[in-house]
């Protein structure tokens, strides 16, 4: 177990460094000039050169990359004189656009994206799995058909369309919810939920439909397995067979899916955040791209990749707990 | 300048329209029997006088570019900064219509005293004015902030100091302990500026946030942007970039030293990163807490259909002119636009009317037939070329044939993201004459850097210019004087127009002592340049804002491009606001 | 014949009457399903629309980028004149607000762009993924290790974020080609994993061993024995990833990093029309319904194909 873990962790770090290197390279060949963007409208040649030096853009790319990598662990000091910038551990760079360390920006926006992803995840698991399992157990009945037709329809709906319909129905016509505007969970849990419910629903409808389809087929497959037949033959109650044996084995593929989806969403549902005007990481990223705020782009990409690889690792570890057939080597 | 900045503008236009607003409730457009439904509130204050207290909410789809006074040089941000957070030597009067362009003393006791033929300017400061911590504001602090604006770490601010102060060449800010000798502070209440050349309009420049005080011990370099130290009626309680800014009262600010700022609300909350169209919908509905809210950015053209037919919403609509002329600018320095006939073909092919529609229609825009906005023509632009507003494709094709390009040609145009719709209208109409335009959209923040790179930029750009104050000297020389073209960071003259007779005439007019004669000469020159068509004037936009039903004391400040004047806005009934 | 040889070893555990190949069987089964008929009809409709876009818009009388100022009211922010977003004999599906461009012409040209990108990207993904999967599964050893690591790495990339970044960085390139390449770049590991697993199980089947003993080279074995064996799951998987590709194109265009104006695509149309969803609902509904129907049709077809060609494997 320990050996497995350490091996995986090394792999994770390797993947992250590789992703950092690729991202870094792409944005180094980026034609726009971050120093020029930071310099503004009335920019003299001297001013531009000074800013470029300050940002470290005059150094070779490998040096910049090394500074970046080592800076994550040791922190960095940029510039000199009165306006020295200290960027402490974990330093993911400094955003000149926002006059703030990238890490601080990410942590400022993360609660928004995390609230969005987690709330939506609860909803889609709840609805998706219950619909999928119900349909599987009532295979080929009318209920099954209705649920699956609904699921395939909902999965095909463009999220833009669902979002606008939700806004129109729940805000404009019914007046049930406010226009989404992020309120911190700590400030006011009720407003947090009521403001986020709409984006949650928009995301959850799409994902619940996909999860219903997946969990149905996975459950049907599992219920046909020999060990289920054995359990039944032993005379175990149907409930026990379904929940203890069927669900446990049938849900493992869903777990993989869930790990990847949640990992991806944590680092910003770019479309949903943009549709509802939520200041999450996705919006930060999109804004940074258009302003050429290279450090933020790199930071978001790395954060997103971290979430994805960590989620994958967590899923693999959970497998061992959930599915007795899996042994970690 | 375009959306750029400084523009003390006295709008004669606004005045004429305001007169009309009382008499005929709208303006007639030639060739149209319909009245402009958006301009009924021009020159008026919406909601009467506000009550003190409550929370004013500002709904925004974006963050401020910079709030650090040394870096703040965007029209809207300057309004917000100088009306709420910091005071400058001189500022604009808080009044609707043309009066909004009048200068009034702010930290200074007067509008400055010139000497040495307007080469030296002396300002005396009011006494007993303090920062948010109660410490007094000194002349040295104003000098310090002007010096800061030279620092390479603090880019973005206005360059008036760099253009005019003596000995400012190559100055890199106060970081290494170097100071500007041309700013003298004989005592804590006197500041003297020594200029390189005579500059009679220097008080207009001291309206810039560059001339706000920053105490040295509070300066945190670039991070100062996230927490400017207040000398105005409000101070920052919290600022999360891109998310939320909360302002609370600065208890050390006193109305007795400040004739401009009224500071009605107790708190201001700016919510950022919202979806623009959802802001429009919220403002139109104006329900609950939104009744005490104002939008930060102008109404989107697609929301016009929800606003204009609705008389109740129209009562809450401001639509002051921005006074900036949008232009299609061609690179006159290289083929194909080095050929006058080709440029004229563009001028004739352009369907300004469809660009106007893409820009929100005649309610939110005025067509341009000259370069300088109507303000500089006593309210109405002349139409010297008489090109139909929908263009003349046949004539354009003839001109192309004469230029030896009967089949047209391909070219590229750079536009700011927000101008995509306007650009598509340009693209479509030029396409009819055979000029195939590819549109490159660039984010507003990177737009000026992109088009300022004269070597690598596209042959066409879509951008505009706003006069800094009602004088032709702040328009034509900035847009058409070839001697100020820079290879990188070029601004204003995006047609790279280097025309000797034009430049000679501009020098002659600048030397005129009779302001009336000079004005007439600028107007004539405008038409002469138009005949050489380095750029095609398209339209002048308005700045439409729909306010909440509980908002009072609101008008579009003509000097800040029609943005709401934050010095006077407040609530009718503070108890109805939340937060 | 190869096909008959395959029937005994094909992954699909179908009871096989003598004399009929799996493909014939599959076809027979497909023909029996109503959902397949409907989805094929929808796909055919949109495919025809895409292929005949210039012809169709010619019939309508409008080019996709031609403005019609007479169809919109400039005083109302450019709202279409007339009911249902300006639907008339002149404009069959109404017009775009502000510009007055013909919606029918834009929808059919948009179909061309959207489907072209989705299907080309899918082709890239399928070819690259199948090749990588077969190579990894058949050769094993170091090839497998390297390819598997590469798959892991690619799958760890936050793909949408990365696609947006790459689209906005590249300026002077053909947007459609770039978008296809970028979407394709991140899609291949999924299919490669499926194919790799399938290949692994096939490599040690008797008939493959027999071919090897019989002196066939690896190329011949791969193309003659392995490839037909993995074809079923690949076809099913392909159909199922097309909706994802269409949605990705729409997402990129929605975020403004997709096609350039005035080129229409469904994603671009939805992005622009979302702002008019309440003032001009038809404008918003038309491209949304097109996107919905296409995604739905491919999903239904993919479901059916998977049930028939690959009843057990290839699920995530």
TrEMBL record, chain A:
<keyword id="KW-0813">Transport</keyword>
<feature type="transmembrane region" description="Helical">
    <location>
        <begin position="296"/>
        <end position="322"/>
    </location>
</feature>
<feature type="transmembrane region" description="Helical">
    <location>
        <begin position="254"/>
        <end position="276"/>
    </location>
</feature>
<dbReference type="InterPro" id="IPR000515">
    <property type="entry name" value="MetI-like"/>
</dbReference>
<protein>
    <submittedName>
        <fullName>ABC transporter permease</fullName>
    </submittedName>
</protein>
<feature type="transmembrane region" description="Helical">
    <location>
        <begin position="116"/>
        <end position="137"/>
    </location>
</feature>
<keyword id="KW-1003">Cell membrane</keyword>
<dbReference type="InterPro" id="IPR035906">
    <property type="entry name" value="MetI-like_sf"/>
</dbReference>
<keyword id="KW-0472">Membrane</keyword>
<dbReference type="InterPro" id="IPR045621">
    <property type="entry name" value="BPD_transp_1_N"/>
</dbReference>
<dbReference type="GO" id="GO:0055085">
    <property type="term" value="P:transmembrane transport"/>
</dbReference>
<feature type="transmembrane region" description="Helical">
    <location>
        <begin position="191"/>
        <end position="212"/>
    </location>
</feature>
<dbReference type="GO" id="GO:0005886">
    <property type="term" value="C:plasma membrane"/>
</dbReference>
<comment type="similarity">
    <text>Belongs to the binding-protein-dependent transport system permease family.</text>
</comment>
<feature type="transmembrane region" description="Helical">
    <location>
        <begin position="9"/>
        <end position="30"/>
    </location>
</feature>
<dbReference type="Pfam" id="PF19300">
    <property type="entry name" value="BPD_transp_1_N"/>
</dbReference>
<keyword id="KW-0812">Transmembrane</keyword>
<feature type="transmembrane region" description="Helical">
    <location>
        <begin position="149"/>
        <end position="171"/>
    </location>
</feature>
<dbReference type="Pfam" id="PF00528">
    <property type="entry name" value="BPD_transp_1"/>
</dbReference>
<keyword id="KW-1133">Transmembrane helix</keyword>
<feature type="domain" description="ABC transmembrane type-1">
    <location>
        <begin position="110"/>
        <end position="319"/>
    </location>
</feature>
UniProtKB/TrEMBL annotation, chain B:
<dbReference type="InterPro" id="IPR030678">
    <property type="entry name" value="Peptide/Ni-bd"/>
</dbReference>
<dbReference type="GO" id="GO:0042597">
    <property type="term" value="C:periplasmic space"/>
</dbReference>
<dbReference type="GO" id="GO:1904680">
    <property type="term" value="F:peptide transmembrane transporter activity"/>
</dbReference>
<dbReference type="InterPro" id="IPR039424">
    <property type="entry name" value="SBP_5"/>
</dbReference>
<dbReference type="GO" id="GO:0043190">
    <property type="term" value="C:ATP-binding cassette (ABC) transporter complex"/>
</dbReference>
<feature type="region of interest" description="Disordered">
    <location>
        <begin position="213"/>
        <end position="232"/>
    </location>
</feature>
<dbReference type="InterPro" id="IPR000914">
    <property type="entry name" value="SBP_5_dom"/>
</dbReference>
<feature type="signal peptide">
    <location>
        <begin position="1"/>
        <end position="20"/>
    </location>
</feature>
<dbReference type="GO" id="GO:0015833">
    <property type="term" value="P:peptide transport"/>
</dbReference>
<keyword id="KW-0732">Signal</keyword>
<feature type="domain" description="Solute-binding protein family 5">
    <location>
        <begin position="103"/>
        <end position="481"/>
    </location>
</feature>
<protein>
    <submittedName>
        <fullName>ABC transporter substrate-binding protein</fullName>
    </submittedName>
</protein>
<dbReference type="Pfam" id="PF00496">
    <property type="entry name" value="SBP_bac_5"/>
</dbReference>
């Amino acid at each position: 177990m320990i050996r497995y873990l350490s091996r995986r962790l090394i792999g994770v770090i390797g993947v992250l460094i590789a992703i950092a290197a690729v991202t870094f390279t792409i944005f180094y060949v980026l034609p726009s000039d971050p120093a020029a963007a930071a310099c503004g409208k009335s920019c003299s040649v001297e001013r531009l050169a000074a800013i470029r030096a300050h940002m470290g853009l005059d150094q070779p790319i490998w040096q910049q990359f090394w500074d970046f990598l080592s800076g994550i662990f040791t922190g960095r000091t940029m510039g000199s004189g009165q306006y020295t910038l200290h960027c402490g551990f974990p330093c993911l760079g400094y955003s000149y656009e926002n006059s703030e360390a990238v890490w601080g920006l990410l942590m400022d926006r993360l609660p928004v994206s995390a609230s969005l992803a987690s709330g939506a995840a609860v909803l889609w698991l709840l609805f998706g799995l219950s619909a999928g399992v119900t349909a599987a157990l009532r295979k080929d009945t009318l209920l099954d058909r209705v649920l699956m037709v609904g699921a395939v329809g909902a999965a095909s709906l463009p999220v833009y369309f669902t979002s606008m319909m939700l806004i129109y129905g729940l805000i404009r016509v019914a007046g049930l919810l406010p226009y989404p505007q992020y309120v911190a969970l700590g400030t006011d849990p009720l407003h947090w939920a009521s403001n986020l419910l709409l984006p949650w629903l928009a995301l959850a409808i799409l994902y619940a439909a996909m999860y219903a389809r997946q969990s149905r087929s996975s459950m049907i497959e599992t219920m046909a397995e020999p060990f289920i037949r054995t359990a039944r033959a032993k005379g175990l109650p149907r409930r026990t067979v379904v929940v203890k044996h069927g669900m446990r084995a049938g849900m493992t593929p869903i777990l993989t899916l869930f790990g990847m989806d949640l990992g991806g969403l944590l680092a910003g549902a770019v479309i949903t955040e943009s549709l509802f005007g939520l200041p999450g990481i996705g919006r930060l990223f999109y804004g940074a791209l258009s302003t050429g705020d290279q450090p933020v782009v790199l930071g978001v990409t790395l954060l997103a990749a971290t979430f994805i690889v960590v989620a994958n690792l967590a899923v693999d570890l959970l497998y061992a707990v959930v599915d007795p057939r899996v042994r970690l080597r | 300048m375009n959306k750029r900045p400084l523009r003390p503008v006295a709008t004669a236009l606004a005045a004429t329209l305001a007169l009309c607003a009382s008499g005929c409730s709208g303006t007639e457009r030639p060739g149209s029997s319909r009245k402009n439904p958006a301009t009924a509130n021009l020159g008026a204050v919406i909601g009467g006088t506000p009550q003190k207290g409550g929370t004013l909410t500002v709904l925004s789809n974006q963050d401020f570019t910079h709030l650090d006074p040394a870096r703040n040089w965007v029209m809207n941000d300057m309004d917000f900064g100088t009306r709420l957070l910091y005071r400058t030597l001189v500022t604009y009067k808080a009044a609707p219509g043309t009066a909004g362009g009048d200068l009034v003393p702010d930290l200074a006791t007067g509008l400055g005293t010139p000497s040495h033929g307007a080469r030296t300017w002396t300002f005396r400061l009011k006494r007993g004015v303090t920062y948010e911590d109660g410490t007094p504001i000194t002349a040295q602090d104003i000098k310090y902030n002007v010096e800061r604006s030279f620092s390479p770490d603090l880019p973005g601010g206005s360059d008036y100091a760099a253009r005019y102060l003596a000995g400012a060449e190559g100055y890199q800010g106060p970081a290494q302990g170097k100071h500007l000798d041309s700013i003298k502070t004989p005592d804590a209440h006197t500041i003297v500026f020594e200029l390189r050349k005579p500059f009679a309009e220097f008080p207009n420049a001291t309206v810039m946030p560059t001339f706000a005080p920053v105490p040295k011990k509070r300066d945190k370099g670039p991070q100062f942007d996230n927490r400017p130290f207040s000398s105005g009626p409000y101070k920052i309680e919290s600022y999360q970039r891109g998310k939320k800014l909360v302002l609370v009262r600065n208890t050390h600010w006193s109305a007795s030293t400040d004739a401009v700022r009224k500071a009605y609300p107790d708190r201001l909350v700016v919510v950022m990163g919202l979806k623009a169209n959802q802001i429009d919908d919220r403002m139109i509905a104006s329900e609950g807490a939104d009744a005490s809210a104002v939008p930060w950015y102008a109404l989107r053209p697609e929301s016009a259909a929800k606003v204009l037919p609705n008389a109740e919403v129209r009562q809450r609509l401001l639509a002051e002119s921005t006074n900036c002329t949008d232009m299609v600018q061609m690179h006159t320095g290289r083929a194909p636009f080095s050929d006058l006939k080709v440029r004229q073909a563009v001028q004739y092919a352009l369907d300004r009317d469809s660009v106007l529609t893409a820009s929100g229609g005649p309610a939110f825009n005025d067509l341009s037939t000259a370069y300088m906005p109507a303000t500089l023509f006593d309210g109405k632009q002349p139409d010297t070329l008489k090109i139909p507003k929908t263009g003349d494709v046949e004539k354009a094709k003839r001109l192309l044939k004469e230029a030896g390009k009967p089949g047209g040609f391909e070219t590229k145009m750079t536009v700011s993201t927000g101008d995509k719709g306007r650009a598509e209208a340009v693209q479509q109409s030029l396409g009819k004459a055979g000029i195939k335009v590819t549109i490159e959209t660039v984010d507003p923040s990177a737009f000026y850097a992109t088009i300022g790179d004269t070597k690598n930029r596209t042959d066409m750009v879509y951008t505009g210019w706003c006069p800094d104050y009602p004088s032709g000297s702040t328009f034509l020389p900035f847009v058409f004087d070839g001697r100020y073209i820079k290879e990188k960071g070029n601004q204003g003259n995006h047609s790279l127009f280097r025309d000797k007779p034009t430049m000679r005439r501009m020098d002659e007019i600048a030397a005129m002592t009779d302001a009336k004669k000079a004005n007439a000469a600028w107007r004539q020159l405008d038409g002469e340049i138009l005949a050489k068509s380095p750029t095609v004037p398209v339209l002048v936009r308005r700045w439409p804002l729909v306010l909440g039903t509980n908002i009072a004391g609101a008008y579009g400040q003509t000097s800040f491009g029609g943005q709401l004047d934050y010095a006077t806005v407040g609530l009718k009934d503070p108890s109805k606001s939340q937060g | 014949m190869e096909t008959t040889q395959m029937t005994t070893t094909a992954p699909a555990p179908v009871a096989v009457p003598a004399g009929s190949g799996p493909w014939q069987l599959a076809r027979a089964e497909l023909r029996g399903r109503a959902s397949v008929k409907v989805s094929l009809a929808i796909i055919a409709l949109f495919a025809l629309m895409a292929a005949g876009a210039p012809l169709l818009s010619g019939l309508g009388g409008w080019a996709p980028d031609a403005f019609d100022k007479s169809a919109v009211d400039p005083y109302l922010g450019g709202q279409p004149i007339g009911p249902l977003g300006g639907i008339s004999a002149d404009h069959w599906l109404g017009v775009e607000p502000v510009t007055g461009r013909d919606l029918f012409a834009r929808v059919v040209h948009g179909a061309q762009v959207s489907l072209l990108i989705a299907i080309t990207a899918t082709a890239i993904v399928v070819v690259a993924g199948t090749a990588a999967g077969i190579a990894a599964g058949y050769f094993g050893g170091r090839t497998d290790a390297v390819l598997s690591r590469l798959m892991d790495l690619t799958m760890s990339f936050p793909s949408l974020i990365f696609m947006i970044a790459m689209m906005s960085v590249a300026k002077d390139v053909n947007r459609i080609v770039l978008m296809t390449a970028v979407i394709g770049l991140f899609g291949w590991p999924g299919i490669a994993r499926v194919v790799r697993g399938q290949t692994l199980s096939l490599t040690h089947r008797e008939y493959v061993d027999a071919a090897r003993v019989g002196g066939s080279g690896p190329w011949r074995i791969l193309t003659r024995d392995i490839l037909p064996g993995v074809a079923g799951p690949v076809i099913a998987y392909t159909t199922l990833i097309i909706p994802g590709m269409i949605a990705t194109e729409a997402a990129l265009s929605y975020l403004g990093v997709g096609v350039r104006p005035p080129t229409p695509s469904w994603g671009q149309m939805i992005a622009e029309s979302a702002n008019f969803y309440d003032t001009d609902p038809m404008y918003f509904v038309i491209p949304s319904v097109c996107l919905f129907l296409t995604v739905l049709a491919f999903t239904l077809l993919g479901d059916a194909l998977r049930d028939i060609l690959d009843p057990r494997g290839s699920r995530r």
